[in-house]
Structures are given as structure tokens and as C-alpha cells.
Amino acid sequence: MAFSRPTREQLAAAAGTTIPDVLRPGLDVLFCGINPGLYSGATGYHFARPGNRFWPALHASGFTPRRFDPSEQDELLDLGLGITNVVNRATARADELTDDELRAGGVRLAAKVAEYRPRWLAVVGITAFRTAFDRPKATVGRQPDPLGETRVWVLPNPSGLNAHWTPTTLAEAFADLRNSVYSE
């Protein structure tokens, strides 16, 4: 079920809005975006902008049996997957967030992980992870320090603006996580 494209006015009105998490206790993986974009804020769906490569990478890596539409995000729960964000407020670009917002988001995210106890937390965006968790030298992949009992993995940002990662290499990074999740 695809959703209708938001208008320019709806996108502008989405600035600063929040969208609900896709979350329940005991997930295999909690994917964590940086923050909702205006498209997500306007539609209420995570990774909703048509150029975002999250949903294709999720499928190509084997996490989902088919490519889900953002409007089907709640179906992830049946697969043991969820979605949240480091910062809740929608912006046009992630670089509109301050370092203080990212650090505060890291504290909120750690509390959410302690409450819901996913097996893995996958932060989608290396720069946001570095700032939110004060890990300036972190690289993509498995992180050495868990959050409590939850193991942490950092994935590249799937935004179409992140041209350094192709659809193929992005899917490979997601597949690396999937292989670790289901082999342990």
C-alpha cells in the first residue's frame, strides 16, 4: 500500500514533527535512523523519501522476504525488527541537527535500548553515531562496546545523498549485520 506524495506545503509543515517508533520488547534488531526527514514527518513513515535506500537494502540483504513499502513498516515487528531515531524531530537535512541534540538523542536511545532490550542496535549513519556516543573513531560494522546487553552495529546512511555507498555496497553492509545477527 503506497502512500500519496506529500505536497510542498505538507513538507514544510512537517519540520519539527515526530513520528512513532516501530518498537516492541525483545527484537532481534532495532534499526536507528539519524532523524526523520520532512518526507517521513509528513507521511508518518520511517525512511519514506522515494530516494532513500533503506527499504531496498533491507530486502537485498535478506532481512525481509520482499521489498516493503514504508507504509508497511509495522510488519517488521513480525520479523523481529524495529525502527527508531537518534533525534526525534523531522528536518530537511541531518546536518540541521546540533551536536547537543545528537548527544541527548544518544542518551535517550541508550535508555530505550535498556527498556526494550533488542539483541542488536543498528545505527544507520556513522557520523551521527560518532557524535551521539562520543566515538570519534568508530567505523562501519560491529562496535566493540555494547549498550548493556545489546550489541551495536553501525551501518552507512541509506540516504540517496550518501553516494559513496552504492545500492550494492549498502546491501552488502546490511547483509554483514544480518549474518552476525543470525549466526550468534
UniProtKB/TrEMBL annotation:
Residues 20-178 form the Uracil-DNA glycosylase-like domain. InterPro entries: MUG/TDG (IPR015637), Uracil-DNA_glycosylase-like (IPR005122), Uracil-DNA_glycosylase-like_sf (IPR036895). The keyword Hydrolase applies. It comes from the Bacteria. It holds the Pfam family UDG. GO terms for biological process: base-excision repair, AP site formation. The keyword Transmembrane does not apply. Keywords: DNA damage, DNA repair, Hydrolase. SUPFAM superfamilies: Uracil-DNA glycosylase-like. GO terms for molecular function: pyrimidine-specific mismatch base pair DNA N-glycosylase activity; uracil DNA N-glycosylase activity. This is TDG/mug DNA glycosylase family protein.
